[in-house]
Amino acid sequence: MSEQARSLYEQALVLKNSGNHLEALKRFDEAQLLIKEELGENSDHLEPVHSEIAIVCNVLSMAHLQREDYKLCAELLKKAELFSEHNDRIKAITFNNFACLFRKTNKLRNALNYLEMALALEY
């Protein structure tokens, strides 16, 4: 991984840890695009970045759920699901958060389905 990509990743971690999740997400996105450009789509260096993107998307989605911004919440959860493809723990969290969204929007069957998928990943 290049020094620039490593720097972006480390900046993103600092931003995430300080609670600035939106800026962290931007830096993680920049880092993963740079890594893909340098090392290709299947680089092992992408896994930790993808996991961090999924975590930050989950955090942001729940903030938007509390604000009743359901559309942005759903978009962030879709991104989290995409980036948690190889991490069952984060994918289970994402499915649980989808269930929260569907429960809040009174789509109880969908909520139950996502809870069952999360539970299946946990076991």
Question: Which helices and strands occur, and which strands form pairs?
Answer:
Blueprint: H1 3-17, H2 21-39, H3 46-66, H4 70-83, H5 88-104, H6 108-122
Identify the notable features of this structure and list them briefly.
123 residues, 82% helix, globular, 0% strand, mainly alpha, Serine Threonine Protein Phosphatase 5, Tetratricopeptide repeat
Report on the architecture of this protein.
The protein is globular. 82% of the residues lie in helices and 0% in strands. It has 123 residues and is mainly α. The longest helix has 21 residues, at 46-66. Helix 4 runs antiparallel to helix 5 and helix 5 runs antiparallel to helix 6.
Structural class: mainly alpha
Termini separation comes to 34 Å
Question: Percent helix among the residues?
Answer: over 70%
CATH H-tier superfamily = Tetratricopeptide repeat domain
Q: In total, how many domains does the architecture comprise?
A: 1
Per DSSP, what share of the residues sits in E-state strands of 2 or more residues? Answer: under 5%
Query: Mean pLDDT, as a whole number?
Result: 95
Low-confidence stretches: none
The number of distinct β-strands equals 0
In summary, what is this structure?
This protein is mostly helical and 123 residues long. Helices cover 82% and strands 0% of the residues.
